[in-house]
Amino acid sequence: MTSEKLVDRALVYLIALTALTSVIAYVAHAATGLGLLIIAAAPLGLVKVRLVLLEFLHLRGRSSPLVPSVVAWAALVLTMACLKLIALVVTGAG
């Protein structure tokens, strides 16, 4: 597959994931509040970060030892952000 087609496909995936995140945010926040919103949107955030980083580093579709480390780094940063938001919700400081 050509490089242009991969970039076009990545852009379509990114737009679709962003739209899905927006729908989840609207429905979850209206139905139950911030707690479910964090849990529902976090995996989509990880997929979006993975897609953008691997595309930016030209690693998408390649078997490189950097791919698992990039995904692990993104998961760690996202986990820390989610834990901070959950702590703020639980303590009522947010």
TrEMBL record:
- The transmembrane segments are 12-28, 34-54, 66-90
Q: Where in the cell is it found?
A: Cell membrane
Record bears the keyword Membrane: yes
GO cellular component, alphabetical, reads: plasma membrane
Tell me if Cell membrane is a UniProt keyword of this record: yes
Protein topology in the membrane: Multi-pass membrane protein
Where does the protein principally reside?
membrane
Q: Which UniProt keywords apply?
A: Cell membrane, Membrane, Transmembrane, Transmembrane helix
Q: Which InterPro entries match?
A: Cyt_c_oxidase_su4_prok (IPR005171)
Pfam families noted in UniProt: COX4_pro
Where does the signal sequence lie?
none
Q: What is this protein called?
A: Nitric oxide reductase NorF protein
Lineage in the entry? Bacteria, Pseudomonadati, Pseudomonadota, Alphaproteobacteria, Hyphomicrobiales
